[in-house]
Amino acid sequence: MLSVLKKKKLWFVFLAVFIAACSAIQSLNIFPVEQDVALGSEFALQLQNSSKDYPVYNNPAVKNYITQKIFQPILQSPDVLYKNVFKYNLEIIKNDTILNAFAVPGGPVYVYTGLLKYLDSEAALAGVLGHEIAHAERRHATNRMTKQMGIQMLTQLVLGQNPSQTAMIVSNLFTGMTLLANSRADEDESDQVSMKYLQATKYYPGAVKFFFEKMRDDGKVEKGGQGISVFLSTHPDPIARIASVDQRLKAAGIEVKSYKATGAGIFKDEYKKNILSQLK
Ligand SMILES: [Zn+2]
C-alpha cells in the first residue's frame, strides 16, 4: 500500500507532467469550448454593470457599419472555426483617451472610441479586429487558466494544503481583467492568425501592424501616458511585432506595405467617410 507521502509524490509527478504537456501542446485546454462562451457572457455582463468604467458608445450607424462591413467578413474566413459556437459580437466603448481593443473568451470583442479615432483605414481596424478574434478562437484565456490551475494545484500539494480549495481558485480566476492579460506568445500568435483571416477578405493581410507603425511614427510607443500605458500593458513589444509581421509577409510572398500605403486593400476614404466623420 502506498503511504500518504508516496501518493503525494505520485500526484506531484502527474501534475508536473501535465503542466509540461500544457506548455508543450498549445491546444491542451481542460475547459470545454462551451466554458469559453459562458465565461464571455459573464464578462460581458460584468462590463455592462460597470458602465461607469466601460460606457457603451451609442452610435448605431458606426457600430452597424463596422459589424457588417468589417467584423462579419473577417468571421467568414474559413480559418475561423468557432463562428457557429461562439457568440461573436462587437461593442464600442466610449473613451477617447484609450487606444485599445480587447476580446473576452467566446466571442465578444470591444473597441474604444480612442482607437477608432486614431486609426486611419479600414484595413488597420480589420487587422486589430482579426487579432482580437484570434484571441477568442485560439482560446488564449482558458489555455492560460489551464496552466495556472495546474500550477496552483501543484503548489497546494507541495504546501500540503487541501486540494478542495481548487474550486475557490478557479472562481477567483473567473473574475478580474487579469484573465485578459495575454502573454507575448499569445500576442504573436494572434498577429499571425489575423494575417491568415485577412487573406480571406478584401483587406491587406499585414494590416495588424498598421496601428503599431502609426504609434511608432507618432512617438507614442516610448512616451507612455494613460491610453498608451493601457495599450502597452496588453500589447507588449510593438516594434518587434512589426518586424515579425514583415517577416511573415515576405515568407508568404506578400508585398510589405506600411500604414502610409493607399490603394488596393487599404480603404482610407471609406474609413474617413463611414467611421471617422461619424464619430462625435
Ligand atoms: Zn492581443
Walk me through the topology.
Elements: H1 4-24, H2 33-49, H3 60-75, E1 89-93, E2 101-103, E3 108-112, H4 113-118, H5 122-137, H6 140-159, H7 166-173, H8 184-198, H9 210-217, H10 220-223, H11 226-234, H12 238-251, H13 268-274
Parallel strand pairs: 1-3
Antiparallel strand pairs: 2-3
This protein binds zinc ion.
Zinc ion (ZN) binds at residues 131, 135, 182, 187, 190, 235.
Give a description of the structure.
The protein is mainly alpha-helical. It has one domain (33-140, 178-278). It contains 13 helices and three strands. Strands 1-3-2 form a three-stranded mixed beta sheet, sandwiched between helices. Strand 2 and strand 3 form a beta hairpin. The protein is globular and about 65 Å long. Bound molecules: zinc ion. The site of zinc ion has 6 residues, from helix 5 and helix 8.
Specify Rg, calculated over alpha carbons: 21 Å
Distance between the termini: 73 Å
Gross geometry:
globular
Overall number of domains: 1
> Which stretches are low in confidence, meaning pLDDT under 50 for 5 or more residues running?
none
Bound molecules: zinc ion
Order of helices and strands: HHHEEEHHHHHHHHHH
Q: How many DSSP E strands? A: 3
Biggest sheet features? 3 strands, mixed
Percent of residues in β-strands: under 5%
Mean pLDDT figure: 83
The helix/strand class is mainly alpha
Total number of helices: 13
Strand order, biggest sheet? 1-3-2
- Residues in helices, as a percent range: 55-70%
